[in-house]
Write a structure and sequence with these properties.
The protein has 280 residues and is mainly beta. It is built from 3 helices and 20 strands. It comes from Desulfatitalea alkaliphila.
């Protein structure tokens, strides 16, 4: 049930006329126009793009700090059972479990434009209906901490399935780069940490200029404070750092108890010892 690349699948949607226009197939991406209903006769299910409740997506004429979202109301029937729900377009892939299935919203067309705002009849949602309710976007969608959102290698942004984390892994060095940008000894070790594989081999350096480019779990490390380019490195948790007073002066001019604490705070090291003219 792993997804194919979304962009390629959308191209197929635009050129393929392999089934009646009012039907859809499980696992396959399909288009649903505003107030259109499509059916799957074999499963006795229907889905309707019922309404656009709001559209606050960033206009294509602007560069927004926040992309914004559009709210869509969908209606799903399994036999006589009916359920309506709301999904947000523009916030990445969205999922909703319903009646033993998972509805996936991939995209909404057209993009929002200030010059030519879309009318309601212009909207087209790109959807997918999956069998079962164990589909997920990330680990938070899985019920237990012993599970993770397993995805096919290289499909970091795709929909996955909740699966148990391995408890025992072989002691073999067959490095993989995880979807979190960290290198793991092998794919099993990555999975045991709840991480999917982006590609085989060690992660290539991710160059940076400031911490914001490295995500919440990493920071931009500079070998020397005067350098303009650093490399993203994992950011340790303060709770995992030793309680040792081996002070270092950070590139930000602040004194830190030790190198680990500095890294946890996202600071590179200028020199050992307390910062001059700074109190502890």
């Amino acid at each position: 049930m792993f997804l194919r690349t979304v962009s390629a699948a959308i191209v197929v949607l635009l050129v393929c006329a392999c089934q009646p226009a009012d039907e859809f197939q499980l696992e396959e991406l399909f288009r649903l126009q505003y107030q259109e209903t499509k059916i799957n006769k074999g499963e006795n299910i229907r889905i309707r793009f019922n309404a656009v409740l709001s559209d606050r997506r960033c206009p294509i004429e602007q560069n927004c700090l926040v992309p914004g979202t559009a709210e869509l109301q969908l209606v799903f029937w399994k036999g006589a059972r009916r359920e309506s729900f709301v999904l947000q377009a523009g916030a990445g892939i969205q999922i909703h479990p319903v009646a033993g299935y998972t509805v996936v919203l991939h995209d909404l067309f057209p993009p929002y434009s200030l010059r030519n705002p879309p009318g309601k009849k212009d909207y087209v949602a790109v959807l997918q209906v999956l069998q079962g309710t164990d589909s997920c976007i990330d680990n938070t969608d899985c019920d237990t901490r012993d599970a993770f959102c397993r995805k096919a290698p290289g499909e970091c942004a795709a929909v996955g399935q909740c699966a148990p984390r391995p408890e025992i892994c072989p002691h073999v060095w067959d490095p993989v780069c995880g979807c979190d940008g960290r290198t793991y000894g092998n794919a099993c070790v990555a999975a045991s940490n709840g991480v999917n594989v982006d590609y085989k081999g060690e992660c290539a350096p991710q160059y940076c200029w400031h911490n914001d480019q490295c995500g919440a779990e990493a920071y931009c490390f500079f070998r020397e404070c005067a350098l303009e380019t650093g490399v993203c490195q994992p950011r340790p948790q303060v709770s995992d750092c030793p309680r040792l007073w081996e002070p270092v002066c950070g590139c930000d001019g602040e004194t830190y108890a030790n190198r680990c604490i500095a890294a946890a705070r996202g600071a590179s090291i200028d020199y050992p010892g307390e910062c001059k003219n700074r109190s502890r």
